[in-house]
Amino acid sequence: MKIQEETKLTYAVLTTPDILQINGDTTLTLTVSNNQSGYINITSLAFQIPLGDNAKDLSTDLTGITFTKPTNWELSQDKGQFTATPTSPSQGKIGREGLTFTFVGIKVNAQVGTTLLTIKETTQEGGTLSTTLPLSKFPEQFQVSDLDATPESVNPGESTTLSWSGSAGSYELQYNQKTIPNLPSTGSYEIPADDLVDTTTFYLNVTIKGSDPTSPATLQREKTVTVYTPKIISFGGSNGRSSALPGGSIPLSWITENATQGSITDPNGNNWDISTDQLNNGQMTVGVPEDVSEIKYTLTIRGNRTTQTMDSPPIQVYEFKKLSDIHGFDDPSTLAINPGGTRLYVGNWGSAGTVSVIDIENDTNNKIADIITGFNYPGTLAIKPDGSRLYVADWYQHTVSVINIENDTNNKIADITGFHYAIINLAIKPDGSRLYATDSYNRTVPVIDIENDTNNKIADITGLNFPGVDDFMTLAIKPDGSRLYVANGSMGNGMVSVIDIKNDTNNKIADITGFNNSSMLAIKLDGSRLYVANSDTISVIDIENDTNNKIADITGFNNPIALAIKPDGSRLYVGNGSIGNRIVSVIDIKNDTNNKIADITGLDMDSPSALAIKPDGSRLYVANWGNSTVSVIDVPSSI
Question: 597 Cβ partners below 8 Å, 6+ apart?
């Protein structure tokens, strides 16, 4: 196929048979393409076929040929010239679909050589451009095979052999600015390994001279040999990870091709060799230096004689810093922060039986009050969305205390009664109208009307699976207020019940099963994901549109007892609650990445029992059951 692209339109001609032979018949297929944006407006296209019996002519006589043309185009003939015109100006608008013309039954003259098919295009604007397409005519019965390579694909340092067969003529091979002349018409040629560093295209050029030495017939065959050179396609933090902790670690992943060796290095000269099975598609966790704020890692891969390198995108290195430890608590078990982010409320589970109020505005972190003493093991705390009321579950007095916290009043204004046994967990509807509690003895979730301080029980949600009065149960409400999730924490047979609470329907619509011990719950603020703490994993549940399918299990925990989600939905913080444990884990949950990116350690935390995050995401508060303190952690913006 011959292609010409000097005009506004692009033209290509295909001959049938592939090799034009003198004294034979041929078909020309001419394609017209528009490779530009927009339309090109054509008035006419003229195709000039040279007539005569010379080497530079195609045919002596075009009488009797037939042709096909596009719909809505006319084609007229005047000897060797064919003129195509659209039936209307709108039909002359040539777009991406292009045009095709076919000329059948052309009798090729008796002279070997090359002729030029001339094309003239005239636009509606009045301009005319012309171009030519060369057509070579070969002797009768002339043939040339494809150019073959054995093998077609090689590793660096290997060779290949090209082969061909054809009729008598002048043959040469071209590649990489080299020319190998005087080759036989049927033969082979071994390409040295030194010439195959990269993927290479080879050209076999064939020339036949005719009666006119200025116009020989020429033909070209080509073959591309693929050289498997090492190539790095991608390299960086796994799942888009772009931050890490100093002295910690970060998982890096890569995709490469044709590597036989590989390694990762950091600017300090640390080196990690990549195992053979990980070379072309792998992941490795590497160390992060202590004293940097940003770091790039370098991936190096090698082939037989070729090396490729790529730097990772910058990894930001942030540090979790403990700003202070707040003292004066007695087995702090629960935390809550008011909507304004100015007050932290701490439930003291020990003999003190109080709820402490901490001023956290501007990191003051001073205890300003111990709310009404006399609680008998204050459990879960819940704050009304308008910040006016604090609700305290009194574990063994079987009540929920209502505390007025407006303007730091901190007075108990009511006790909600009527529960039979330990009130373990509380949750408030986002519109502030309903309080939900867990009554484990009755195996129900009482619904309390708290609008306007009514504080009346209006319903009991039943049909739940609480296995025993002391089993741990937690509640979580979807941010749109349509669903209540109830963890039923039987060891070895955990489940989460889904309750329709829209318009006080209060019907169970599903049980999500498959947990070992469903204890703590947390919901992403966009309402798409529910996180369920098991014995040593966190299960991720798709709750969008009531799908309720488990999509992942995040592993690597030790009795996860406290969960908190960063307000922007990017991170899940997990308190590992075993006695003596000093770890808060950080999970990347953005875009369902669900990778543990850090363990906050070394900050003298002890058995984290509760977590709370400031509404602006800048501070993480950790209740330390083991040493009766609350740690204040500075949260880097990217962690």
Answer: 241, 243, 244, 250, 586, 587, 588, 639
Write the burial class of residue 138 (CB in 10 Å: 0-12 exposed, 13-18 middle, 19+ buried): buried
Give per-residue pLDDT as tens, 556-586.
Answer: 888 898 999 999 999 999 998 766 667 898 9
Record the tokens describing residue 366, joined without a space. 């001073």
Does residue 44 contact residue 9 with C-beta atoms inside 8 Å?
A: no
Distance between CA atoms of residues 472 and 580, nearest Å: 21
148, exposed or middle or buried, with CB in 10 Å at 0-12, 13-18, 19+? middle
- The pLDDT of residue 283 is 93
Alpha carbons 520 and 565: distance in angstroms, whole number: 12
- The first and second tokens of residue 599, run together, are 């363990």
**Integer Rg of the chain from CA:** 40
Task: Return the H-helix or E-strand segment holding 356.
Answer: strand 355-359
Which among 397, 325, 394 has a CA at the least distance from the CA of 626? Answer: 325
Structure confidence by residue, pLDDT tens digits, 278-330:
998 999 999 999 888 899 999 999 876 778 999 999 998 887 888 899 999 99
Q: Which residues contact 126 (CB under 8 A, 6 or more apart)?
A: none
Q: Which residue type does 144 have?
A: V
8 Å CB contact between 128 and 122: yes
pLDDT under 50: residue ranges of the chain? 1-5
Q: In what order do the strands lie in the sheet with 271-273?
A: 271-273, 261-265, 298-302, 307-311
Give Cβ neighbours of residue 547 (< 8 Å, ≥ 6 apart).
none
Whole-number Å distance between alpha carbons of 610 and 488 = 19
C-alpha to C-alpha distance for 366 and 528, rounded to whole angstroms? 37
CB 412 within 8 A of CB 428: no
Q: What is the signed CA dihedral for 232, 236, 239, 241, rounded to 10 degrees?
A: -170
Contact 391, 436 (CB under 8 A): no
- The CA distance from 478 to 522, in Å, is 9
For residue 79, what pLDDT is reported? 93
Best CA proximity match to 182, nearest among 154, 205, 157, 213: 205
What whole-number distance in Å separates Cα of residue 145 and Cα of residue 248?
62
Per the CB < 8 A criterion, the answer to whether 344 and 335 are in contact is yes
Instruction: Provide the b/e sequence for 74-92 (b: ≥16 CB within 10 Å).
Output: ebeeeebebbbbbeeeeeb
Q: The whole model's pTM is what?
A: 0.63
| Amino acid of residue 629 | T
Q: Which residues contact 194 (CB under 8 A, 6 or more apart)?
A: none
| Nearby residues of 573 by Cβ (< 8 Å), 6 or more positions away | 562, 563, 564, 565, 566, 584, 585, 586, 587, 611, 613, 620
Name the nearest CA neighbour of 233 among 286, 137, 310.
Answer: 310
Among 501, 486, 487, 500, which residue's Cα sits nearest to residue 433?
501
Give the number of other Cβ atoms within 10 Å of residue 127's Cβ: 10
Number of neighbours of residue 525 by Cβ within 10 angstroms: 12
Distance of alpha carbon 634 from alpha carbon 534, whole angstroms: 27
Which amino acid would we find at residue 601? T
State the residue for tokens 């030194």. 194
Q: What's 585's DSSP letter?
A: E
- Count other C-beta atoms under 10 Å from residue 265's C-beta: 15
What is the rounded CA–CA span in Å between residue 597 and residue 41? 60
Edge-first strand order for the sheet with 378-383 is: 378-383, 389-394, 399-404, 411-416
**Residue-level pLDDT at 373:** 74
